From TrEMBL:
Organismal lineage: Bacteria, Pseudomonadati, Bacteroidota, Flavobacteriia, Flavobacteriales
Protein known as: ATP synthase subunit delta
A GO molecular-function descriptor: proton-transporting ATP synthase activity, rotational mechanism
Subcellular location: Cell membrane; Membrane
Sorted UniProt keywords: ATP synthesis, Cell membrane, CF(1), Hydrogen ion transport, Ion transport, Membrane, Transport
Keyword Transport in record: yes
Entry-linked HAMAP family: ATP_synth_delta_bact
Function of the protein: This protein is part of the stalk that links CF(0) to CF(1). It either transmits conformational changes from CF(0) to CF(1) or is implicated in proton conduction.
Annotated PANTHER family: ATP SYNTHASE DELTA CHAIN
InterPro entries in the cross-refs: ATP_synth_OSCP/delta_N_sf (IPR026015), ATPase_OSCP/dsu (IPR000711)
Sequence similarity: Belongs to the ATPase delta chain family.
Pfam families xref list: OSCP (PF00213)
Amino acid sequence: MRGTRAAQRYAKAILSLAKDKNAADAVHQDMQSIANTVLKSKELEDMLTSPVIRNSLKKSTLLEIFKDLNGVTIGALDILLENGRISILHLVARQYIIKYNELNKVQEAVVTTAVPLDAKLESVILEKVKELTGFAASLKNVIDENIIGGFILRIGDLQYDASVSRNLTRLKRELKDNTYVSKV
C-alpha cells in the first residue's frame, strides 16, 4: 500500500513525542477516532486526498469533525499538512495504534462471527486470549454470515477456525474421498 513506510515513520515520531509529553493515551484515543472515521467516510478520505482543496480548509474541516483533539495530535495534523502528507492520515493513525499496542503489550484479536457478540461473550473471549497468549488484547468483531455459525479467532499470525462452514467443507472433503460413500 502506498505511503505505508512514511506512515510508520510519522507514527513512530508521534508516539515518541506523545510519550515525552505524557499524552500517549490521549493521542491513542484521537488516532482511534481518526482511523475509524476516515475508514467509514469515503467523502472525508476524498477530501484529504484532493489536491484541489486547500490545506487551510482541510485543517479546519478536521478540527471541526474531531473536536477536543490533544495538542500532540493537532501538531501531527499540522506537520502532515505542511509536508503534503495529509492524504495518509488514516495510515498514520492505524500505524500509531499498532505501535501504541506494541508498546503496551496489547494485541488485537479479530473475531469473525455470523452474528454480533454480546458483552458477556466478548469478556470471555478476551480472558481466553489473555490466558493463551499471556497478553491483554483489544477485540474487534467482524460479522460474516457466510461462516454460518461458530467463530474464527485471529490473534496476530495465529488463527483458530471453529466455524460451521469450515466443518462442513472438511466433512464434504472427507465424504468425497471416502471409498465407501463414493461408490454409493
